[in-house]
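Class prep. Protein, please:
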Amino acid sequence: MKGLGILMFAALAALLIAGSANAYTGTVSLNASVAVYCPFSVSLNVSPYYIDYGNFTVNYIISTSEPCSLNNLNRKLDIYYPNSTLLHEYVATLKTINTTPAKYYVAVNSSIFPAVGTYPITLTVSNSTYKNSTTSVIYLIASVDGQITKFSIPPSIKQFSPLPVNITIKNIGNLTAPPSNLTLSITGPNNFLFNYPIPALSPGQSVNESLSIPNITGKTGAYQASAVDTYYFNSTQRKSNIALAFFDVYSPPPPSPSSVSSGMPPPPPSIIPPVVKTFPNVFVVNFPSFISIASGHQIQDQMTFFNPTNSPEYVNISIPANFSKVVQISSNTLYIYPSREVSSGIIFGTVPNMSGTYMVPITVNASIPHDKAYSQTEYVELVVTNVTPGQPYVGYQIDMANNGTTVNGILSLTGAANRTLSNVTLDTMLPASIATNASDIRVYGLTYNLSLNNGEYLIRYFVDSLPPKQRVYGYYTVSYSPNPQLVQDIQNVLSIPTFVPQQDILRIISISLPTFYANSTNTVTADTLYTGTKAENVTFTLIGPPNARIGNPVRVVYAVPNQFITESFPITTNSTTGTLLMQLYINAPNFNITESLPVLILAKTTTTIPIRVPHVISSNASAIAIAITLIIAVVVFILTVARFGRPKTNIERLRRLKMIRDEIRRRDGNG
């Protein structure tokens, strides 16, 4: 056994000697991976970040405490919602860093943020041996801190008179707005540019500027005024919204509404004005399409054309003689140079108690050299409504621009004659399909809120205080509308929530709200009781979404004391099913009622009534059945004779009157 151990040791020694000999004649390579520990720090250049909408960068620095090389660094920037859930992350790999400190940045677009607010951020940089991170916050501020909430100029100015301008600027942001510069631009027969200093405004603070500008109204015609406030924040220029106003300089005075004839018969209401596309050889910059005006008042607008050709253009504008006292044009003939635009003012005026819908034809003749002439007629829908004395009223106009692809709306709210109104809201409802998305709708002029509800865009304008007879304006623009013909479905509703009725002079007895079916017509009926002490006008207004067409949605009834009023509204639905919310407004002097009506629309179904096949009966049973049939026929004949011998009675009307009587007794506690 001992000899075997010696033998094994000798063999091992021989192998070691052989390997040692080979080491002198060959090559042995040794591969080793050594991780170098190189600590580093990460810091943000600026903290916190105050940013506006748009592209911006988050800058950071990587530093080491001693000379060493950093390889294959992974960088991750995490942006969180205010509730600390992850909003977005930016991940990248950095190249080798041999010299520190090294400066880097992350490009961010603020479109990822859902709203103005505070967003925590965390920046983490790591490699295989070390990791470091730092945190901060991003303050996303409003894109416009200073906003022009009021910009008003009287619509008609006498020649050579000073121009009165009233402007209110409000800081709607969450930071103090520094001193700014207000630029007022006026274009028309004369062009002017003015600048006014505006002091610093803290969040929510407003400043009002009442200006009287001389030496502007020397030339008559239509003018446009625009105002914008410009200031600098963090060395970046910022601008407010652009507010617009239109006015006309006249001499002699414009036609008096009292001279307007109200004897024009309106065409059938089924006529819908066509959408302005383009006139021959001229480009339509602005053209009226819809005008709503209170009787006895005026509204101004303008027609603007652009000449895209290489030669001068003559444009003649004409209106039929029977409309000449209702519609006045400042210039019937326009001469347009190449690549220039020219405007003609237009005034719509009415007399008191002139109500109805009028289709005003406006013919445009365009001619170019070499005896070529073209003509086209467009129709402006003019809606005239009567207003209650001493109550506020709304006038609005809709213009087509950019050859009929853009919709411009202007609303004017005029205060009551003898009292100041508070917390007034004015709702404008636009069909959802009039715009591609909400970003195509731009609203300005008044404080507002824009939302999408029940298949329509709702623009809610807010007026904190409206002094007597003062007029404020709200504006909206739908850019490149895919369905501009839907302007006929735009609705406006005025609400004064702080008004307290003096007495309860209206009661809703019952509202019949049946189930509707798609692509069909049914009726909503409201029964009311008027208990005022004198005869007054009572107005019923039913408003609903665009997919439910309401027949004659506004009704005016001259009611006497203790009169029952029944109003039925036929409603035609389209293929949309579901629940639609409608609003019923009932107005009498010093009293208003608002009711929300949920309308259920179901899909149409086809019901098959099964027909029973009679069994074969015996001859005796057949005789008995014939005898019974004869007896029933005799009884029916006797009842019929008795029925037609008495005066005819409307059973349905008796049932409804009994229901109304019982309801009144129940509400008065007498039933």
About this structure: The CA atoms of residues 291 and 397 lie 4 Å apart. The chain has a mean pLDDT of 77.
